[in-house]
TrEMBL record:
PANTHER family: BLR3436 PROTEIN, NADPH DEHYDROGENASE C23G7.10C-RELATED. It comes from the Bacteria. Residues 434-769 form the NADH:flavin oxidoreductase/NADH oxidase N-terminal domain. This is FAD-dependent monooxygenase. The keyword Oxidoreductase applies. Residues 13-370 form the FAD-binding domain.
Amino acid sequence: MTAPAGPGHRPLKVAVLGGGPGGLYAAALLKRLDPAREITVWERNAPDDTFGFGVVLSDETLGGIEHADPVVYRALQAEFVRWDDIDIVHRGRTLTSGGHGFAALGRRRLLAVLHERCRALGVRLRFRTEAPPAAHLARDHDLVIAADGVHSTTRTAHADVFRPRLTTHRCRYIWLSADFALDAFRFEIADTGHGIAQLHAYPYARPSPDLPQALHPVRAGETPLPSTTPQRHPHPSPARPGASDGGASTVIVEMREEVWRANGLDTSDEHASAAWCAELFADTLRGRPLRTNNSTWSAFRTVVNERWSHGRIVLLGDAAHTAHFSIGSGTKLAVEDALALAACLREQPTLPDALAAYEDERRPVVASTQRAARASLAWFEDLATYTAQPPHQFAFNLLTRSRRVTHDNLRLRDAGFTDTVAREAGVPDGTPPMFTPFRLRGLTLRNRVVVSPMDMYSADGDGTPGDFHLVHLGARALGGAGLVMTEMVCVSPEGRITPACSGLYAPEHERAWRRVTDFVHAQAPGTALGVQLGHSGRKGSTRRMWEGIDQPLPDGNWPVVAPSALPYRPDVNQIPHALSAVELAAVREQFTRSAAAAARAGFDLLELHCAHGYLLSGFLSPLTNRRTDAYGGSLAGRLRFPLEVFDAVREQWPADRPMTVRISATDWAEGGTTPDDAVAIAAAFAEHGADAIDVSTGQVVPHERPDFGRSYQTPFADRIRNTLGIPVIAVGAISSWDDVNSLILAGRADLCALARPHLYDPHWTLHAAAEQSYTGPGAPWPLPYQAGSRTPPTGRTDAPKPRLTLH
């Protein structure tokens, strides 16, 4: 029977597997909270054995340590090296952004502080001792904390319970150290002759105070920033054991696997590898060598577990989750895990309750960090696609790569830097990037905001848009967006998703849509209105979303068609008819008739819907296209019919009006469309005359597993834009004007499409302008609404403060 965890019960007997920072700190906290607990840490290495060199901790993590254990906090505070600047070296130029705030110390010193604290509290430390299996320890311990790292034997032994997902990534990296202290966090890009490599480096030990501090000469090719860049304020710390008197810096060198192999590093030992890296980055290292410490080239592995506990066993730190080193969160997460676990054991009445509360508390925080880490990791994997960017845009792109640092908070940290980036990009002074114009063929959009296509399921039974569409689209057009898109407008009755979906296949449809375009052009001049044409394919003949998404109609179902006879949901949706070559020609003609009607109806832009599992998307995905004729098989075959439709529509659509294509850049399912496929699909449509690619993802198969999160789809748009050099529209949980500014200024997208924010607030764009104090041509308020262009006053907040307080 599991022992209770709360106060007043028998003290816990705890085994900790792994003597890294997370395991040691958990042991110290648990012992401090209840000195009667019997706690043993098992570590197979010697006390001073460690891998890597420096550790970065955030102020947030340090605050948690300070509240939980002031003794450890004071010991760490005395050791930290602090700095504010990030240097980015690219093509011979060094650009500096200030105001960031970092703290680091040597990993060996961190472990020594935790060893000392554990011993002082009475924790048993068993070094050079292989721990018994967690299941064996659980027989006579109340709690077993598996802090045994990324290669956790505990996680492997109980994989059927924890259900880990391990993803190995495409770069190789090596941890090294330099025997001097850099004065900033440094990123540097170097050409190896076989591709590029990048350096990530930061100080973790300051020079001895009695040494001269002139260790930072001006570097060759360094370009000073404007005088608004904050001055550096180093915080000297005494020399540490294991570091030279001149301080020390962590140096990580990383490159794509194929670059690593081409340079012969796959056959180099650690000393030869260190010498190669020192030569490549000789300027930054001032000709000095690099130190090793069991330094091997590794491929980063992302660890995600479906469960973190099993009976009395709980995972902590890298055993439970990993986050790429480029955001410096590995040790931070492990320490925060320890804080949360100790708190939950104190607060909850039983051990199962405590472990459940621990996971509930930590899982969303870890998931958010892992999303940021994956975005950062992917950015560095695809680094070669960004190296042609202008220097300041490249630097801004690097700094905002994880989506945690944004345009707005970077501007707060270093306004001079962000203003320089904007000037280099041609953004007028005083203009947020989102309010700069953008041209597509003969259409100039006054800003970069798009109201994304959203199915409203509110048309008349025959597909005719009515007053709802006039008010819905008219309100968003008055709200200031540069481009407002209709929902998917269907090209035939059987091409509708539901009976309430709008169409453009009958004369009354054309007249109804003309009413909407006339209103927008007259009442919201400068706003463009786009139409998205599509065919539901196998996802048709279903109920409206709020009546049961993707569920068949209770009666009146019509036959559905698709590339192959595969139902969307087996045993739920009907089996579609696989279209013959003759039937494909008829569908193509439906698209062309609708395109001609859309032109007559006055739309400014046409988008072809090739995403989300609808008919044309169904041809593109190998999961939904199993054809053996010319319209299936290879990607070129799967592209054939969508390109035929595109060409036919482009021929009908006026030459001066732009055409875009929406694609699903990944199916989020094994065996489906990959990001590489998406680049090839986008390139094919661009070659056929698409003016921009609207990059969405998923909704192709019901068993998809999307990686949801803020701006989670934008990396796919980013990759297409920076690989092919074609305009893209980014979509996917872009919810703030700060996100839009960041994406545009970093060069990851040309336009940003937002859906739910425009349902919440039809005037989202105008309010974004007001919140940024922008009043220029990119967001003019309609004359009848100008009185509302300022934020309304709220309740009184300036009441007089008390003049006298009596005690």
